[in-house]
Design goal:
Homodimer or homotetramer. The chain is of the alpha/beta class. It has two domains: about 220 residues, Growth Hormone, Chain: A, CATH 1.20.1250; about 230 residues, Vaccinia Virus protein VP39 (Rossmann fold). A seven-stranded mixed sheet has the order 7-6-5-8-9-11-10. A four-stranded antiparallel sheet has the order 1-2-3-4, with helices on one face. β3 and β4 form a beta hairpin. The protein is elongated. The N terminus is likely disordered. The protein has 15 helices and eleven strands.
């Protein structure tokens, strides 16, 4: 018998064995019911993408090497979505019940995924297994949605398969767009990662449950209706309780990660800032973490900043550019030279600069550098800022940036970036670059040096020892090739046209850890460890990794 409901010229879709295809008895007109199903597709797609972005953001923050974590999450989730689509075939006989169960499970797992990932990292010290497990489970559930929704929309009003698929995927893609934009611009800055995921799960459970329990309620037996209602109420209750306890959980987990003396913890539009140590007393006990990685330790920061800044100050240094260094500590060292006329600090995060200005301990540590009228602060992307800068502006450039490969700062260690920096130097100018640990990450260090040479700069590599604050004591448990925490800092001093001399000027204010003899000894030791033949890192071909 011919199906008269099929559009003219289109053969009716075959009816799968055991799958009901008769029109459902709905409390609304079919047109309205179809719009409600598509609206549910829209919301579920937005929620699914938020879960995915939450996992990506938290994995990059906790584990580092964002490229690797993005690849792991995306590849596992896409694979799992295919598995979920196949498994959904078993639920097509009862699509309403199946879809409601999938959405309840997805809301619970997705809503608690960020919290579980952070808990795994805080108390177990490892987040990768949890990351893979949640990516797999959430991917399976997301993959099961579309086949079930396809069956439900056909229950509302039969139409050709191509038209139904087009409608579903249009709603799905638009929902993904909204979810993708809502995460960085709304959920993350206003609610944070943990509460944002829980709110997304709440919306997911409410919308998915409401569609089935109201629109398709006549497809459910009385027992199924009550079971689904209880499951959705239970999921909403769990997520609501977790939301109420989120702040307490964060405090407890943060103490497990950073220790018991967390004094400042805030999420800026760029990263998470955590400051530990007492608010009074010696600044030596202060530690500053950016996105979970120890950036400043009051115990030994002077060794790092003296070695970074002062070798570059031998020669003209009237105008100095500090890239990064929003904590003000590199600027402090620059300002120890009284003949400096201008210091420009370019940092992406205004929150770091604000903290360095206002926090009593951090401002003591940086000697009130931002109160000096010679200091100018620019809060923007350093790469974009250098591109718009006229040539020959600075005598000295100090690149005080996080290690390449661990953070998204990799582009600031590229040949293109160093070319822009070289253009900004005046004749006889120098650039000092923090290049990571020479002993534990030698491949990264010598790649930085090779990249500087490829940009037309002559280089003088060196290092500074006496590092007391290793990664292993903090939340960043990344170790070097030797399996130990870094014990040194590696630097490269570079100049255009001539190899700069490693020394400290005689009129340099008294230093606590640096001397010309120590610099030259470290340079000789570095040359003994040189890795030759490394290609430079470029924007289209970055060559840094977290290992």
């Amino acid at each position: 018998m011919i199906d008269r409901s099929a559009p003219r010229g289109v053969l009716p879709a075959p009816r799968p064995r055991g799958v009901a295809t008769v029109q459902a008895a709905l409390p609304v007109r079919p047109r309205t019911g179809r719009l409600l199903v598509l609206a549910t597709v829209f919301v579920c797609a937005a929620c699914g993408l938020v879960y995915e972005l939450e996992l990506l953001a938290l994995a990059s923050y906790l584990i580092g090497d964002s490229v690797t974590q993005t690849s792991v999450v995306l590849s596992v989730m896409v694979f799992a979505m295919g598995v979920g689509s196949l498994l959904a075939k078993r639920l097509r006989g009862r699509p309403a019940v199946g879809f409601a169960a999938v959405e309840a499970a997805l809301a619970l797992l997705g809503g608690l995924s960020a919290t579980s990932l952070y808990a795994s990292f805080a108390w177990l010290g490892e987040a990768r297994p949890a990351l893979v497990a949640f990516s797999l489970a959430i991917g399976v559930l997301i993959g099961a949605e579309i086949p079930l929704l396809m069956t439900l929309i056909q229950r509302v009003r039969r139409q050709d398969a191509g038209g139904a698929v087009a409608d579903l995927f249009a709603a799905d893609y638009v929902g993904a767009l909204v979810g993708g934009l809502a995460f960085p611009f709304l959920l993350l800055p206003l609610l944070g990662q943990l509460t944002g995921a829980m709110l997304t799960g709440t919306v997911n459970a409410a919308v998915g449950g409401a569609l089935v329990l109201w629109l398709f309620r006549r497809d459910l037996s009385g027992r199924a209706r009550w079971l689904l209602l209880a499951a959705n109420v239970g999921v909403l209750a769990v997520l609501a309780s977790a939301t109420l306890l989120a702040d307490d959980f964060e405090r407890v987990a943060r103490r497990a990660v950073y220790g018991g003396d967390v004094r400042v913890a805030l999420q800026t539009g760029v990263q998470e800032l955590v400051l530990t140590g007492p608010s009074t007393g010696s600044p030596r006990s202060l530690d500053l973490y950016l996105d979970g990685r120890l950036r400043v330790s009051g115990y030994d920061e002077y060794r790092y900043h003296e070695a970074l800044v002062h070798p570059a100050m031998t020669g003209p240094h009237g105008r100095v550019l500090v890239l990064g260094g929003g904590d003000g500590l590199a600027a402090r060292e620059v300002l120890r030279h009284p003949d400096v006329a201008r210091v420009t600090v370019v940092d992406l995060d205004p929150g770091v600069v604000r903290l360095a200005r206002t926090d009593p301990m951090l401002s003591v540590l940086n000697a009130g550098a931002y109160g000096d009228p010679r200091v100018e602060v620019v809060t923007t992307d350093a790469f974009r800022w250098l591109r718009g800068l006229p040539a020959r502006q600075f005598d000295v450039i100090v690149s005080d940036l996080p290690d390449p490969g661990i953070t998204p700062s990799t582009k600031l260690y590229s040949q293109e970036f160093y070319g822009l920096a070289a253009r900004a130097l005046r004749p006889g100018g120098r650039i000092a670059v923090h290049a990571g640990s020479l002993t534990t990450r030698p491949h990264t260090f010598w790649t930085v040096e090779a990249t500087l040479r490829a940009a037309g700069l002559a280089t003088a590599p060196y290092s500074a020892g006496g590092r007391l604050s290793g990664f292993a004591a903090g939340p960043d448990r990344t170790l070097g090739v030797s399996g130990t925490s870094p014990q040194d800092w590696g630097f490269v001093l570079a100049a255009v046209g001539h190899r700069p001399e490693l020394r400290v000027d005689r009129d340099t204010p008294a230093l606590r850890s640096l001397s010309t003899a120590a610099l030259r000894d470290s340079a000789r030791e570095a040359e003994h460890q040189r890795i030759k033949g490394l290609p430079p890192s470029t924007l289209p071909h970055p060559r840094y990794s977290a290992s």
